């Protein structure tokens, strides 16, 4: 799995907000705490706001906060907010691909990869990452010889 920097930045900024639930954090504060280039983070936060992941508060104590509890926001939600659907091939969903000849079964491989990603990313909340209390199924994968 390859994640663009913007996706990594979005997840890290969201985790910082999850770790500070009672404080609105500015783009500058988020960028500084997570070592993210501030010039990219503003646009990322706008995407997260439009997707309903964060809320922007105005005023002297303004900044961003999570739109709902960190236990209700999954890592997959953040990825989808800034990067679209999980596992696309050339911008298409795997089930919409048509291969022929020796490649005929390839779409099913992409679909299986998407299912595996979902099994992890749709069950790991921001709160779980911040607390270090990952789901048992994820911990089992970490202990796997294939990790």
TrEMBL record:
Keywords: DNA-binding
Record's signal peptide: none
Molecular-function annotations in GO: DNA binding; DNA-binding transcription factor activity
An annotated GO cellular component: cytosol
InterPro entries per record: TR_Rrf2-type_CS, Tscrpt_reg_Rrf2, WH-like_DNA-bd_sf, WH_DNA-bd_sf
Annotated protein name in UniProt: Unannotated protein
Species classification: unclassified sequences, metagenomes, ecological metagenomes
């Amino acid at each position: 799995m390859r994640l663009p920097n913007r996706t990594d930045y979005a997840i890290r900024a969201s985790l910082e907000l999850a770790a500070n639930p009672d404080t609105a954090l500015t783009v500058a504060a988020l960028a500084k705490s997570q070592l993210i280039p501030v010039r990219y983070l503003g646009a990322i936060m706008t995407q997260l706001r439009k997707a309903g992941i964060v809320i922007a508060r105005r005023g002297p104590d303004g900044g961003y906060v999570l739109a709902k509890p960190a236990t209700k926001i999954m890592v997959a939600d953040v990825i989808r907010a800034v990067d679209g659907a999980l596992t696309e091939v050339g911008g298409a969903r795997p089930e919409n691909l048509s291969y022929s000849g020796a490649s005929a079964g390839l779409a099913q491989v992409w679909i299986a990869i998407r299912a595996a990603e979902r099994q992890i990313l749709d069950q790991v909340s921001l709160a779980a990452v911040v607390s270090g209390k990952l789901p048992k199924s994820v911990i089992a994968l970490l202990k796997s010889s294939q990790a």
